[in-house]
Every structure is written in structure tokens, then in C-alpha cells.
Design goal:
Number of domains: 2
Radius of gyration: 23 Å
Strand content: under 5%
Structural class: mainly alpha
Number of strands: 0
Shape: globular
Largest sheet: none
């Protein structure tokens, strides 16, 4: 492991330790809301490990740090009321989410479908990357809606002028889509030349493991026929 990777993992593990401490403190002081949000954040942090174990997907240290920072920022938004104290907090998180998920989706698809055997048109690849980012954003909004109605919380941040939370949901979806389109467009333009394609393959290969090529079978039959004829 390189020094840079070690530092990134160290900061990620430190933030997770803080979340674990907040959960314990919430349980001790009967602050169930903080305990619940901390547990939710910690559970989300295990997603890269689950993908690594059950799929050919991997989360490099830098990406793990980004995911942990995002989870910790979301925790501050809910537990420390940052969503109410700073009006731009929620919008910034959704914008960054679209940027990161869109770019990672593009790199993974590029690593998988830009080879001699399988090649996807660049425009279709970009559209799919944006769709992946929007699907992730929609899944989060569905989660917020479900929690609000099942546990009677206010993750959708209803206001007097919008008692349904629809405006918050749509703004989050739009900002997430803008971030995804922006990052994917930049990656698409960069991969239009040879050096950019090599850059995308190198980064994408950190997230996905290519299957090992099948060994070529030796043609013993032809050699057997020739030796039989000579005999």
C-alpha cells in the first residue's frame, strides 16, 4: 500500500470512528435520533466492502475517502442541523454526489466496454453513466420519502409553503442530474483522444476487475494427424 493510500484510508477510518462514537453517545444519552442517523451512516459505509466481496467491483482508497466524507457530511446535515443552518448544504451534497457518481459510472463503463471484444459507442456510454447517477439520486429520494412516512421524520424538509416536500425532492434531483451531466461531459470530451482514453482505462481499472483471459488450447489433433500419416 502506498503512503497516499494509507493516509486516505486513515482519514476515512477516523471519520467512521467518530460516527461510531456518536452512535454510542446517542445510545447512552437516549438521543435516539443521533444514534439512528449514526447507525445509518455506518451501515452505508460498508457498501464498498459488500461490493468488493460479492462482485468484481473495487473501491480504491481515494474513493472510500470521498464516500466517507459524503456520509459524514450527510450525518452533520441531519444530526447537527446543517441542512437548516446552511441553506446550501443539501444542494452542495447532491451536486457533489452527481459529479462523483457520474464520473465513476463513466470510468467503470469505459473500462468494461472499451476493448477489442466489446466496444460501446461513446455517446451511449455517457448517457448510461448519467442514468446511473440519476438512479442513485432517485433511490436516495425514495429512501427519504419512505423514512418520513414510516418513522414520521422530516428528511424531505417540508416548509410552510411546501408541506409535501416536493420542491426539495425536485431540486435535489435536478442538481444531482446537473452534476452528473457536467462530470460525464468533461470525461466524454477528455476520452475523445488517445491519451484521454488511456487515462480513463487506468482509472476505471481501479474500480473493476477484468476477467482473466482464457488460455489458448494447443492443437494436439493436427500434430497427431501428421505423425500418424508419417507412420
Amino acid at each position: 500500500m502506498t503512503r497516499s493510500a494509507f493516509v486516505q484510508l486513515f482519514f476515512a477510518r477516523t471519520l467512521l470512528a467518530v460516527l461510531a462514537g456518536e452512535m454510542v453517545a446517542g445510545l447512552i444519552t437516549a438521543n435516539w435520533w443521533v444514534a439512528f442517523i449514526s447507525l445509518l451512516a455506518l451501515s452505508a459505509s460498508f457498501l464498498p466492502a459488500v461490493l468488493d466481496r460479492n462482485t468484481r467491483m473495487h473501491a480504491p482508497p481515494g474513493f472510500q475517502l470521498v464516500i466517507t466524507l459524503f456520509i459524514f457530511a450527510a450525518f452533520l446535515g441531519e444530526a447537527a442541523d446543517f441542512y437548516w443552518l446552511f441553506w446550501w448544504w443539501d444542494t452542495t451534497l447532491h451536486l457533489c454526489s452527481g459529479l462523483v457518481v457520474g464520473l465513476v459510472g463513466f470510468l467503470v463503463l469505459f473500462a468494461l466496454f472499451d476493448s477489442e471484444r466489446v466496444k460501446m459507442p461513446p455517446l451511449l456510454l455517457s448517457v448510461l453513466a448519467v442514468a446511473i447517477a440519476m438512479a442513485v439520486g432517485s433511490a436516495w429520494e425514495i429512501f427519504e420519502f419512505s423514512v418520513d412516512h414510516l418513522i414520521d421524520l422530516d428528511m424531505q424538509r417540508k416548509t410552510l409553503s411546501d408541506n409535501s416536500g416536493l420542491i426539495d425532492t425536485m431540486v435535489d434531483e435536478i442538481v444531482n442530474a446537473v452534476g452528473a451531466i457536467l462530470s460525464v461531459s468533461i470525461a466524454h470530451l477528455r476520452t475523445s483522444h488517445r491519451r484521454g482514453r488511456q487515462w480513463a482505462k487506468e482509472l476505471g481499472s481501479q474500480f473493476v476487475e477484468r476477467p482473466a483471459p482464457k488460455p489458448k488450447r494447443k492443437r494436439y489433433r493436427r500434430a497427431f494427424v501428421h505423425s500418424h500419416r508419417d507412420a
